[in-house]
Design a protein that fits this description.
The chain has 4 helices and 9 strands; from the N terminus they run ααααβββββββββ. By secondary structure, it is α+β, with helices and mostly antiparallel strands. The chain has a domain of about 120 residues: Peptide methionine sulfoxide reductase (Metal Binding Protein, Guanine Nucleotide Exchange Factor, Chain A, Beta Complex). The strands form 2 sheets. Strands 3-4-8-7-6-5 form a 6-stranded antiparallel sheet. A hairpin with a 7-residue loop joins strand 3 and strand 4. The radius of gyration is 16 Å and the shape is globular.
Length: about 170
C-alpha cells in the first residue's frame, strides 16, 4: 500500500515537458495558427514504409506520438547555427536563432521558421489540454507548444530531438 501514488508516475512522464496552462491561453495558441497548413507537397507513406526509413525511436515519436526522455536528446543542448528540419521529410521547421534553453531538457524554440510548416492541434491525452506540434508536410509528431516562452512570441515549442535533423549553416568565409 506504500506505493499507491505510483499511478501518477506514468502520467507525469507522459506529460513530457508540459506545463499546465489555462484553457484560454492554449486556445489562443491554437487560434493564432489554425488554417495555416499550406504546405504544397504532402508526404504520404504506409506505416511499413515509415518503419523502413525511421529508426525505432524516430518512428515511436513521429508516428506514435511518443516522447523521448528529458535531457537525453541529441539537440537539447546543441548550439550550432543552422536549421532544424523534420527527420521524416526534410521540411525546414526551426532556425537556431529562435532556439533557447528552457531548462526542460528538450530543444525549445520561440517560433517556427514559417507557421505553415508546423500545424497545431488540440491534444487532450493524459487528462490535460495541450497543443500538439505536427509537421505539416508528413504529419509527424514533433512535440507540443506552450504559452510560457520568451519574447517576442511568448511561445515555447518543446520539440523532441528524435523528430529533428540539423542542417548546419554554410560559412560566409570560403
Amino acid at each position: 500500500m506504500r506505493f499507491r501514488w505510483l499511478w501518477f508516475l506514468p502520467m507525469a512522464v507522459a506529460a513530457g515537458c508540459a506545463t499546465f496552462a489555462p484553457l484560454d491561453q492554449t486556445q489562443a495558441i491554437t487560434q493564432s495558427q489554425k488554417g495555416n497548413s499550406k504546405s504544397k507537397e504532402k508526404i504520404v507513406k504506409s506505416e511499413q514504409e515509415w518503419r523502413q526509413v525511421l529508426t525505432p525511436e524516430q518512428y515511436h515519436i513521429l508516428r506514435e506520438k511518443g516522447t523521448e526522455m528529458a535531457f537525453t536528446g541529441q539537440y537539447w543542448k546543441y548550439k550550432e547555427d543552422g536549421a532544424y528540419v523534420c527527420v521524416g521529410c526534410g521540411q525546414e521547421l526551426f532556425n537556431s536563432k529562435t532556439k533557447f534553453d528552457s531548462g526542460t531538457g528538450w530543444p525549445s524554440f520561440w517560433d517556427a521558421v514559417d507557421k505553415s510548416k508546423v500545424e497545431l492541434k488540440d491534444d487532450f491525452s493524459y487528462g490535460m489540454h495541450r497543443i500538439e506540434a505536427v509537421c505539416s508536410r508528413c504529419g509527424g509528431h514533433l512535440g507540443h507548444v506552450f504559452p510560457d516562452g520568451p519574447r517576442p512570441t511568448g511561445l515555447r515549442y518543446c520539440i523532441n530531438s528524435a523528430s529533428l535533423d540539423f542542417k548546419k549553416a554554410e560559412s560566409k568565409h570560403k
